[in-house]
Amino acid sequence: MRNLAGWGVAIVAVLAVQVHAAEIAFTGGAGGTGTDLSVAENWDGGALPGDGDTGVIDYSTFSGGGALTVGSDLALGGLRFRNASAALTLSGAGTLS
Fold it and tell me: Is the CB of residue 61 less than 8 Å from the CB of residue 33?
């Protein structure tokens, strides 16, 4: 029987290089009114963006208003606002980095 352990490491290394950062939409959850950026259900796909991803808040599709919160620490690669027609407020106990 051949030892394939070395091949497994090589395959994992190649697959890891193929991972790309994504733009993930903030939807506000099922009702579209959730405002906490640190709640996974408020993001498209029900998962928080990672530190290499860009969170996108598009006010033409999100109906939660201009006041957003960060309830717990959240690390993103970036945060983009689209179609904001009113003042935006960001507050909360968490750190956004």
Answer: no
3-state SS string for the chain: CCCCHHHHHHHHHHHHHCCCCCEEEECCCCCCCCCECCCHHHEHHHCCCCCCCEEEEECCCCCCCCEEECCCCECCCEEEEECCCCCCEEECCCCEC
Please give the distance of CA 45 from its chain centroid, rounded to a whole number. 10
Cα-Cα-Cα-Cα torsion 36, 41, 42, 46, nearest 10 degrees, comes to 140
Supply the pLDDT for residue 59. 83
Distance CA 30, CA 5 (A): 44
How far apart, in Å, are the Cα atoms of 93 and each of 17, 34, 89? 35, 16, 14
pLDDT over threshold 60, residue 78:
yes
Query: Residues 33-68: pLDDT tens digits?
Result: 899 999 999 999 999 999 999 999 988 877 777 889
